[in-house]
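Re: weekly structure request thread

Next one in the queue (1001 aa):
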Amino acid sequence: MSEPEGISRAMPIGHAASDKMLHLTVSLPYGDAAGMQNFVDEVSNPKSPEYRHFITPEQVGQRFGVSAANVQKVADYLTSQGMKIRLVGKNRLSIMADATVAQAEAAFQTNIFQFAWKTLDVPEGGLFSFTTEPSIPASVGQAVIDVSGMENFTKPKPRTFLTPTQLRTLYNVAPLYGAGSQGQGRTVGISNWDGFKLSNIPHEYSQFGLPTPPGGVGSNVSVVTILSGMNGPNHGEADLDIQTVLAMAPLCNLIIYDGGNLSGSVDLTGTLTKEANDNNADIITESYGWQLGSSTANAVHNLHLSMSAQGITYMAASGDSGTDLSFFYPNIEPEVLSVGGTTAVATAAGVRTSETGWSGSGGGWNTNAAAFNVLPSYQKGTGVPTNINFRLNPDVALDADPNTGYVVYVDDGSNPAGFYQIGGTSGASPTFAGALADAEQRLIALGSLPANGAGKKRFGRIQDLIYSYNGDSSVFFDVISGGNGNLPNGQASTAKAGWDFVTGWGAMNFDGFVTKVANFAKITSVAASPSTVEGGSATTVTGTVTLSAAAATGGDVVNLSSSDPSVTVPASITIAAGATSGTFAITTSGVSTSKSVTLTASQSNSSATTTLTVTPAVPTALSVSPGSVIGGGSVVATGTVTIDVTAPAGGIAVALSSSDTTAATVPASVTVPQGAKTTTFTITHKAVTTATAVTITETIGTNNKTAVINVLPAKIGFFTLSPATVFGGNKVTASVTMSGPAPAGGISVPISLSDSTSATLSSPTITVAAGASTGSVTINTQAVDASKTVTVTVTYASVTKSAVLTINKPAMLSMTSNLTTALGGVTNPVITATLTSPAGPSGVVVNISTNLPSVAKFSTTTLSIPAGSKTATATLTTLAVASDTAVNAIGTFNGTKMVSVTVQAATLVSITLNPTTVLGNGINVVTGTLTINGPAGPNVRTVSLSSSDPSVVVPSAINIVPGAKTATFTFKPKAVATNTNVTITATLASISKTATLTVTH
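Done, posted below.
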């Protein structure tokens, strides 16, 4: 934000009123400036695939602007300072706000003063400006590149008789105009900073017989106010712009963007912001030159870039001071068409008598250091210097000499109202705008200016197209005489053949321009051969674009696009000069389902489409492994799908089906994964009663492959007997195991025995229940006298299995005793012999014995067990023993078993005395009796005796003879001094018994 031009020569006269209202425009940078410039260059280049693919202001902001958050941050800051937001640009380049002087000073850390300057026309309200460089807080400063509206020193310089009818004839607008192309449907904008009166417009219409819009004269004119200057002082510039546009295109929609007044405040940045934001005007003309600070120049350049991206054609007068381009903007702007001036002489009918370069025509270049002030990529051709790296002026020219200027009705309030002759490039630029509106209308009617992707039928930055014609004589009248001064390098600027610094390419032939554009070879068709192709296959697909006429010199660029990523085409092809068609290679990739893909060939004037059907991969093989399975068995069956090309992203679904779902089922589909050609799936087979051939089918679209899997019924896999050897009379389980589960209703497997006398079956069949794979029956064996073998056989589905059952005769199972101990000679245990199974028909004789017959013995040597019985008993007779002795009772029949019984020796049970009281005198006899619980034997049993007192002397031992249970002894107690109780103790083995004798005195 540099100091405005002229302030250093003005005198401050006091602080500006704090409540004075200012109209500010805060400009923001591009987030991607290089990307934006590249897009505008591409969208404006007729040979680019992006040609005329204009975008909306919102898209400009989204794609190339700063972030929405940064825009909001700046807006929030302005609001926080008390300012009122009027507009936030959709392209994120500008924020328009109203603020008082006090609010602006506080927000931007500056002071705003009033000034006086005698040599400058002082506007109403006086001059004002900031006196210190404005600054912005760092939190938002990086998002702001310029603030305009805090001074009114900066003003544009207006760029200053042929009738409209003559001009239309002179520049060959008449054929278009006469055929009805008078601007209908086109919207022309005027960037204006001057007073004007809409009431002047009807005079232009009536004077020159212009057609009336449907709503009446003036109904097609609207005013968009940025800073009101409409009713301010009138210098004639606005009336010139308005009436010259309408003289060429009286039925267009005309928008006057009112950005202030030369005699007051003007708002350049705000005006361009509103024009870009509205995006309503197809063409905009400006007739002013500016001296701008670098930040403001960058801000308005950004707005012009946005308008180019949106397809708006912006043009401006090149100036009326010849090669003096000190009011350098927009002369340095590559995005603006620079319209210079000529001196045109024509007959009353408008036929050109002569046309030379006007001496005032703004031309040359300005060396301003703005980054965008460089030779544009489009600015080349015959006569265009290649060694001057600045924006060169002008591009084209129309009549501008005041002596042959424009007739305009002016009522400025100071001079008499009426028609005045006004010259200058300020008339050439709006005349060009109006004529271009007629040309665009005609091209639209011819189908040569179709709507672009944004729905706009516009040329956008038209300079690229104009320079691509390289001075074509059917489009331009080459002005080759006249001069406008000396160029910055000291050379004289004179008109010459080709492009020059006086008139650019010269005067436009608008009907010739329409013919040139309309006669561009149009696209009549685009075709793909073949029209149906398998995506990703090796099939070569060729696209052919056909034109309505031979391609122009240098070839015609045709842009190509595909509606689906599965089909790839080049961004563009160039049809060779003189050719009417061109071909291109079409590449396809795999698809999961059939797609109808639209291929589009387009130019600026025409387009055509065709449909290429892309089909999914073709199945080439289907296999199953194994080919035969037992239905429902444990063997896993796998299917393998194979397609001819690798699957696309997301894979490709292959439909699957089974011809008999009762025998085998498959998933509804299986997906071949991305990048693969094969995949597998599981076949679920089920139990069947008969062999079933099931056809599995894979399908993609209309193509399929099949494979057969044979599902077999279950067979006998195993047959077992448990146990396989048994003692007759016991049960045996016969089990069959099938190779797979039984089907619904189950399976009955017949079973038979080779000998039904030795064994019988609980059922003649083994039943395997549905879904099960095993079943069993019981075999009841019979008791036998001798071992036998029986063959058990099962048969099912031609499979026979056999097993041998061995039935053995009984064997000794056990010998048991009802007593574990027995008193020898007293107690006789009962011994039970038990067989493993019942005795056979002949019964069983068990040999019985003991290992110690002298201790215990049976009365017989055999024990008979009758047929059908498993047990028999015998009494074991015990004998008296001297000590406890274990004896084994032994049974022998088809094996030996024994049981042990302990035969106990008799034990001492008592000792008795008779009498129990006796006088001790050595004479009286006492008899003692010893008793044992069984007979003694086989040897004597010796019992030891003892006395507790010497008065009684007993034998030391007494023998009980074999077979006896008692023994007696006698003794004579001695005299005692007092009555004495004497204990007599008898001991046999470990057992002692006592008796008490009272010996009296």
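The chain is about 15% helix and 40% strand. The radius of gyration is 64 Å.
Next request, please.
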